[in-house]
Amino acid sequence: MADDALLSYVPYRPAASRTRYYDITLRDYVDQFKIGVWDREKGRTQRVRINVTLTLPWPDRPMTDNLDEVLSYDFLIDGIRALRDGEHVHLVETLGDRILALCFSIPEVTKARVQVEKLDVVPESGGVGVVIERSRPEEA
Fold first, then answer.
1. pLDDT digits (tens, 9 = 90+) for 57-80
2. 8 Å CB contact between 92 and 117
3. What's CA 135's distance to the chain center, in Å?
4. pLDDT, tens digit, for every residue of 111-139?
5. How far apart are CA 28 and CA 113, in angstroms?
6. How many beta carbons lie within 10 A of that of residue 62, not counting itself?
7. 3-class SS at 25?
8. Distance CA 52, CA 112 (A)
9. Is 3.30.1130.10 the CATH classification of the domain at 17-62+74-135?
10. Residues 6+ apart with CB under 8 A from 127
11. What reaction does this catalyse (predicted)?
């Protein structure tokens, strides 16, 4: 009977997708941000760790090893640094939402995941914060 089960086994093959995707990641970016809701947090900076993953369609042509053919992560780093240098933010949720808005300023981005953590709030932990994910509505 075991032999019969092996003969009837059909390996899983995912359906072919019309579009391939790739991710751009920024992992463990740590910098000083003006963030916090409490009086003791205002007027100073805190260490914040940011992780971002952006999903984009893979070009439907052979790659030519040219930077102009892909989205450079420089826009993401420059945008996060601009947020760092901007006004005081009360909540990690607000900072995360602003980073998501930065991600979706690129029309090709289909999905983004942002994690923002304050690193020095709870000494017993590596960080406290939020993870926010958003997808662009699919076109019909």
1. 987 777 788 777 788 899 999 999
2. yes
3. 11
4. 999 999 999 999 899 999 999 999 998 76
5. 13
6. 7
7. strand
8. 7
9. yes
10. 49, 117, 118, 119, 121
11. 7,8-dihydroneopterin = 6-hydroxymethyl-7,8-dihydropterin + glycolaldehyde
pTM of the entire predicted model? 0.82
Residue spans of beta strands (DSSP E) within 58-127: 111-118
CB 31: neighbour CB atoms within 10 A? 15
Token couple for 103: 């991600």
The answer on pLDDT for 42 being more than 80 is yes
Place of tokens 């989205």: 71
CB 54 within 8 A of CB 16: no
Q: pLDDT-based confidence at 4, cuts 50/70/90? A: low
